[in-house]
Design a protein that fits this description.
heterodimer, A: mainly alpha, ABC transporter involved in vitamin B12 uptake, BtuC, two-stranded antiparallel sheet, B: ABC transporter involved in vitamin B12 uptake, BtuC, two-stranded antiparallel ribbon, 2 strands
C-alpha cells in the first residue's frame, strides 16, 4: 500500500498553471471559435515559440538552483547571427555537413557563455545578475560587431530543413473546397518538446537535477549533505548556456535570418514563462513541465489578442503584464495560505501531544 | 542566504570605494595617455544663445545625471529588499507622459504649470513604485519578479496615456531644466543631481531611515522583533525610488524636448543596477554606501563616452562595456579580495621575517 503524499509546492503551482491554460484555451475555443477549433492553431503556437520554450527551460534550471540568467536572449541573437554568416559564407550549398557544423557552432557559443558565466558566478562568487547582464551586453555587442545589417540565409540545404514540416493527417481539418489539410509541425517545435521532456527527466531522476533542487532549496544544508555546491551551480549555468545555444539554432530554423534585434527581451519573456509555470526565483521550487505551459499561456494570450479587435502591440504587452500580475499574486496568496495551514497543523499536533 | 548576509556586512567599510575609485582613475589615466584633449573644457554659445561649457568631461557629468539619480534610489531599494527594481525605465516613461500631458493641457508653459506637471508626475510615479513596493513588502514577492510586471507593460501604459508616439514639449523653461539656465554655463541636470543627493543626505542625517533600511536588509526578522516595521521600510524605499525616477524622467523629457515611450530612459534599469554593483554595494541587501553607486554611475558614463571618443560604433559599445564591467566585478569579487589580502599579508610577514633576520 502506497500512502498518498500531499501535493508539494512545485506540484501545486504546476497544476494551477496547467488548469488555467486549459480553461483559457477552452474559453478561446468557445468564444473565438474559428482557428482555435483546429489543432493547427496549437501547433502554430508551438512552432512560433519553440526557441522561447527552450530558453524558458534554461531559465527554469538556473532559477531552481537559486540563480538567474539574463543572457539567454543575447546568446540567441549572437548564435543566429554567427550561424547565418557561416551558412552564407560556406562554399558548400548542399549536404548536411554544414548543417551539423551550424549546430556545433550554436552549441559551442552557448557552451562558452555557460562555462564563463558559471565559472565567474560559482567559483569567483560574483552576483549572477551582474555576470549574466554583462554576458547579455557582450552577446548583443558581438552580434552587431559581426554584422549590423540583417543577414538572410541563402544556404539551400539549410532552407530545405527549415521548411521541412512533419505532417500529421489525422489531426488536420477539411478546407472549404473539400481538401484535407494535414496538421503541420516544424522540426524546431519537436526539438523544443524533446528538450522539455529531457530536462524534466534530468531534473527528476538524474543526480545533477536533484542536486540543483537541493542547492536552490537551501545552500547550507546541501553543503552539509556533501553536495558539491560550486560544481552544481557551475553545471546549472553550463546547461542553461548550452540550451540557449540550441535555442539559437531552433530560432534560425524557424526564421532563417540574422538580425541585431533577434530575441530582444527574450530573457524577460523566459523569466515570465518560468514564473507563470510555478518556478520561484528564490529557488528550490519549479518544474519545466509547468514552464512549458507557462510559455504556452503567454503565447496564447498574444494569439488571442492578435485575433481580437485590440490587435495592437501595446494591448498585447498590457495583457501579458496583467496576466503576470495575476499569476504572481495568486502564487503569493496560495503559498502564504499553505504556510499558515502548515503552521496551524503543526500547532495542532503539538497541542494534541 | 547566510553567505550573502556575511558579505553584506563585510562591504560596509570605506574600502568598498577603493575598487570603483581605482577603475575611475584608470579610465582617467587611459584617456590622458590616449588623448589629453579629452579633458579640455571650452566655452561656446548654444542654439538658444546661452554661453555654455562644452567638452567631454562636462558631457560625461551631464549625461550621467539621470543614471546617478536613479542609482541613488536603486541603492536604497537594493539595501532594504535584497532585490532590484527593473521597471525604473518604464515607470520613468510614464512620468514623462504624465508631465507632457499636464503641460499640453495648460494654455502655456509657465513656472506654475511645470511645477504642477512635476507634482503630478511625481505622484503618479510614486503610485506605480508604490504598487511595486506593496507587492514586495506586503505580498512578499521577489522584487525582480514584482517589477517584471511594470517592466513588460509600463511603456505601453505610457503610450496609452499620451495616445501618440512622440508628443513634443518646448519652451524656455523646458530647455532651462533639460539643458542650461541662461547666464549659468553649467548644465542644469548637474544641479538637480546635487539637489537630490543633498535631500537624500539630509533625509539620512536627520532620520533613522538609513539605519533601519540596513537592519531590515541584513535581518528582517530581527529588525521586526526590535520594533522596526519591515513592510513600511521597504515601502518607503520604493517611494524614495519613485521620487528619483520622477526627477530623472522629467530631466530626460526636458532634455530631448519630447517623450518617446519606446526610447526614453531605455535600458537605464540595467545601468542603474550595474552602478549599484560597481559601487561595491551588495546586491543581496544590507549595508550600503550611496556615494559608491553615484561613483558607479559616473564610471559607466565615463566608459561610454570614452568608447564613443575612440569612435566605437554606438551599437558595438555594449561588448566593450561588458568586458570592462567583468574586469571591475572580478577585481571586487570576494574570492579575489581574499586572495589579494592573503598574498598581501604573506608579503608583509615575509618582509617582517626578512627584516628581523637582518637585525639578528
Amino acid at each position: 500500500m502506497k500512502r498518498r503524499e500531499p501535493l508539494t509546492d512545485t506540484q501545486l503551482l504546476m497544476s494551477i498553471t496547467i488548469g488555467i491554460f486549459v480553461v483559457m484555451y477552452g474559453a478561446a475555443m468557445i468564444f473565438m471559435g474559428g482557428g482555435f477549433l483546429r489543432v493547427q492553431q496549437f501547433f502554430d503556437i508551438l512552432n512560433d515559440n519553440s526557441a522561447l520554450i527552450i530558453i524558458s527551460c534554461a531559465l527554469s534550471i538556473v532559477m531552481i538552483g537559486g540563480g538567474i540568467n539574463i543572457s539567454v536572449g543575447g546568446v540567441i541573437g549572437l548564435t543566429v547571427m554567427a550561424c547565418a554568416l557561416y551558412l552564407n559564407g560556406t562554399g558548400v550549398q548542399s549536404g548536411f555537413g554544414s548543417i551539423a557544423i551550424t549546430l556545433l557552432i550554436s552549441l559551442g557559443i552557448g557552451l562558452v557563455f555557460g562555462v564563463c558565466q558559471g565559472f565567474l558566478i560559482s567559483y569567483l562568487e560574483i552576483q549572477p545578475f551582474i555576470v549574466t547582464l554583462a554576458g547579455m551586453f557582450l552577446a548583443r555587442g558581438l552580434t552587431t560587431i559581426l554584422s549590423i545589417n540583417p543577414v538572410k540565409v541563402t544556404h539551400e540545404a539549410f532552407l530545405g530543413v527549415s521548411k521541412t514540416k512533419v505532417l500529421i493527417p489525422w489531426l488536420g481539418y477539411t478546407a472549404q473546397n473539400g481538401n484535407l489539410i494535414p496538421a503541420k509541425i516544424e522540426i524546431g517545435a519537436i526539438i523544443a518538446i524533446l528538450v522539455v521532456i529531457l530536462v524534466a527527466i534530468m531534473l527528476r531522476k538524474a543526480k545533477i537535477g536533484r542536486h540543483i533542487y537541493a542547492l536552490g532549496g537551501n545552500q547550507q544544508s546541501s553543503l552539509m549533505l556533501g553536495i558539491n555546491v560550486k560544481k552544481t551551480r557551475f553545471m546549472s549555468y553550463v546547461i542553461s548556456g548550452l540550451l540557449s545555444g540550441l535555442a539559437g539554432f531552433v530560432f534560425l530554423l524557424h526564421k532563417p535570418a540574422g538580425n541585431a534585434s533577434v530575441a530582444m527581451r527574450g530573457e524577460m519573456d523566459a523569466i515570465a514563462s518560468s514564473i507563470i509555470g510555478g518556478t520561484l526565483l528564490t529557488g528550490g521550487v519549479g518544474n519545466v513541465i509547468g514552464t512549458f505551459f507557462g510559455t504556452l499561456i503567454l503565447a496564447t494570450i498574444q494569439k488571442i489578442i492578435g485575433l481580437s479587435p485590440l490587435n495592437e502591440s501595446w494591448w498585447q504587452e498590457m495583457a501579458s503584464g496583467a496576466m503576470l500580475a495575476l499569476f504572481i499574486l495568486l502564487q503569493s496568496v496560495v503559498l502564504s495560505s499553505r504556510g499558515k495551514q502548515k503552521k496551524l497543523s503543526g500547532l495542532m499536533k503539538i497541542a494534541k501531544e | 542566504m547566510a553567505e550573502r548576509k556575511k558579505n553584506g556586512g563585510k562591504a560596509s567599510s570605506l574600502s568598498q570605494l577603493i575598487i570603483p575609485l581605482m577603475a575611475l582613475g584608470i579610465l582617467v589615466l587611459f584617456n590622458l595617455f590616449r588623448d589629453p584633449g579629452f579633458f579640455s573644457i571650452g566655452i561656446s554659445v548654444n542654439n538658444s544663445g546661452n554661453t555654455v561649457l562644452t567638452g567631454n568631461l562636462i558631457s560625461v557629468i551631464d549625461s550621467a545625471s539621470e543614471l546617478a539619480i536613479i542609482a541613488m534610489g536603486m541603492t536604497l531599494v537594493t539595501a532594504a529588499t535584497g532585490g532590484q527594481d527593473i521597471s525604473v525605465g518604464a515607470v520613468g516613461a510614464i512620468t514623462g507622459s504624465i508631465f507632457v500631458m499636464v503641460l499640453q493641457g495648460e494654455a502655456g508653459i509657465t513656472g506654475w504649470t511645470v511645477a504642477l506637471g512635476f507634482l503630478a508626475g511625481c505622484l503618479v510615479t510614486m503610485l506605480f513604485t508604490g504598487f511595486n513596493g506593496t507587492l514586495v513588502s506586503v505580498f512578499k514577492i521577489q522584487p525582480m519578479i514584482a517589477t517584471l510586471i511594470l517592466y513588460s507593460c509600463g511603456r505601453s501604459i505610457a503610450y496609452w496615456i499620451t495616445g501618440s508616439a512622440t508628443p513634443q514639449i518646448n519652451g524656455p523653461i523646458i530647455s532651462a531644466i533639460g539643458m542650461t539656465i541662461p547666464g549659468i554655463p553649467i548644465p542644469t541636470p548637474i544641479f538637480l543631481v546635487l539637489l537630490v543627493g543633498l535631500l537624500l543626505f539630509l533625509l539620512f542625517r536627520f532620520s533613522n531611515i538609513s539605519l533601519y533600511t540596513q537592519s531590515v536588509g541584513i535581518n528582517q526578522g530581527a529588525s521586526r522583533l526590535n520594533g522596526i516595521n519591515p513592510v513600511a521600510i521597504k515601502l518607503i524605499s520604493f517611494l524614495v525610488l519613485g521620487v528619483c525616477v520622477a526627477v530623472a524622467g522629467i530631466i530626460s523629457a526636458c532634455r530631448l524636448g519630447q517623450v518617446s515611450h519606446k526610447t526614453i530612459l531605455s535600458d537605464i534599469e540595467m545601468d542603474a543596477i550595474l552602478a549599484v554593483a560597481i559601487g561595491g554595494n551588495n546586491l543581496g541587501g544590507g549595508k550600503f554606501r550611496m556615494s559608491g553607486s553615484i561613483l558607479g554611475a559616473y564610471i559607466i558614463q565615463m566608459l561610454t563616452t570614452t568608447l564613443y571618443a575612440m569612435s566605437v560604433a554606438p551599437s558595438n559599445v555594449k561588448a566593450y562595456k561588458a568586458i570592462v564591467i567583468i574586469i571591475i566585478v572580478v577585481a571586487g569579487s570576494p574570492v579575489i579580495k581574499a586572495k589579494v589580502t592573503g598574498f598581501w599579508n604573506k608579503m608583509k610577514n615575509g618582509n617582517l621575517k626578512a627584516a628581523s633576520r637582518g637585525v639578528n
